[in-house]
Write a structure and sequence with these properties.
Length: 66
């Protein structure tokens, strides 16, 4: 399941790059982990936080676009 989620995130990033929303020279390392609290879902990724500086946008805005 983690590989599928990673692939979906990768596709979303590639789509935003193709649309010109994100720069094409991003250094992206996607981590998907189980949440510590099951009330917060099954899996989580911090990709919006890690890419926000490179993307020059707030993490929440980037997460929404992803």
């Amino acid at each position: 399941m983690k590989l599928e989620i990673t692939s979906i995130i990768e596709q979303a990033i590639d789509t935003l790059i193709a649309k010109g929303v994100l720069p094409d020279n991003l250094h992206k390392v996607i981590h998907v982990d189980r949440t510590k609290d099951r009330n917060h879902g099954d899996f989580a990724s911090n990709i919006a936080l890690t890419l926000s500086k490179q993307a020059n946008m707030p993490p929440r805005e980037l997460a929404t676009q992803l």
